[in-house]
Fold each of these.
Amino acid sequence: MKNTSTLKNLLGSLILLSCLSPVVASANAEARGLEIATEADRRDTGFVDSTAQMVMELKNKQGQSSVRQVRSKILEVTGDGDKSLSIFDTPKDIKGTASLNYSHSLKPDEQWLYLPALKRVKRISSKNKSGPFMGSEFAYEDISSQEIEKYTYKYIKDETLNGIECFVVERYPAYKHSGYTRQVAWINKQEYRAEKIDFYDRKNTLLKTLTYTGYQQYLQKFWRADVMHMVNHQTGKSTTLTWSDYKFKTGLTDKDFSRNSLKRAK
């Protein structure tokens, strides 16, 4: 009887462990995913502000392209998402158009667009996060700063991408009106910077892939990619952002990111 009772207890424990192990594994994967995201955020904190020049090239399915020149300004905000301002210098028909973005953690981002032809500032609806930014393959939610709280995370595996050792992490939008069910990010193990991100649409079908190349380090800490290439697998369109002339700690303040600053942007 004693041996039978012991066997029953052992079998019961094994059954319980088999039930718990997927839950434990999932919890560990989520904790590891959050840990990786937190470290990546920590390493990119403290740049204060930055300015840069950017060339945006749009390509359609047939390979025809159009090019825009853009100036970018970013202000780091402690305890909240960053503020950013993009000013279009060319082509002539959109010269002076400016986009202002206040990123937040979970509450809706605030975004405005200044249209010089109408001489008015238009507020972008918080429900329009998945809409294309200035006709590009980047959505409005893609150009917001990626605060940790905007997602939940799950570590998937380690993988080598183009000779670079990476963590592969899934992240799931925790905010309303996202155009994505999930994103899969390849994070450089050594520098904790994104090398590639796959975006899945609301039907959980692969929609877009963003790749980063030509990373440069600034102030001996902050990594910025020279080129960001977004391809839409469903339409065949793509957008390439080529960055240059990065400057940090330039003295930008909140006044440089007010709605009135949109009209003054030149």
Note: The radius of gyration is 22 Å.
Amino acid sequence: MNLQVEADVAAFADACARLFVERAGQAIAARGKFVVALTGGSTPGPIHRALATTYRDAVDWSRVTVLFGDDRAVPPTDERSNFRAANETLLAHVPATVFRIEGERTDLDRVARDYEQVLLQTCNGELDFLFVGLGQDAHVLSLWPGCPAIEERERLVVATIDPPMNPAVSRVTMTPPVVERAHLVLAIATGTAKRDALSKALHAGEDRPHIPAQILRRGRDVRWIVDAAAGAGS
């Protein structure tokens, strides 16, 4: 895996946005579209804002399709919604095609199966660009330490009911096969609280059940971009 450590959050966000722009241009030139899955949490916020402002005109957003790697089982207006956060910082400002996870529906397994069909129809399950945020417990997507879906090999999207995560709400998440099929996975982390998790993801012995971020080791092109606070010592 490729690790890039930037001096601060501003430089981190700029580096991530520039990689997004580069890959979007390549995909659109080659295939006429760019399919990306966003991640949740606070880490991608500065990246989204950079894309919505500094780099807005560098991307043909009319050819961009946006999905989500995971989201919580809440309405899209809920403050816990990954879609809401991304919409406020990026999606409301660009003319991309957006497919959100309908977490407000009651049958989350049906939601997961429907979203899997969206993933297959938009890119045959092979994302051009997958953002993955790193949790303090080394979780990625909504795959926490001990999550059975870490070993999923068939389903591309699954529901996780009452996971031991914060916030304590059920989720719908993409699975390891999506990571493995993506043309590029961009893993991101900022802040000293992520330092130990990053070290485990990159350097610890193989232990995917307890260090979910190690599923990224199976990706065909995985880039880590972090700030100096998270990357110190790595």
Note: The chain has one domain: 2-231.
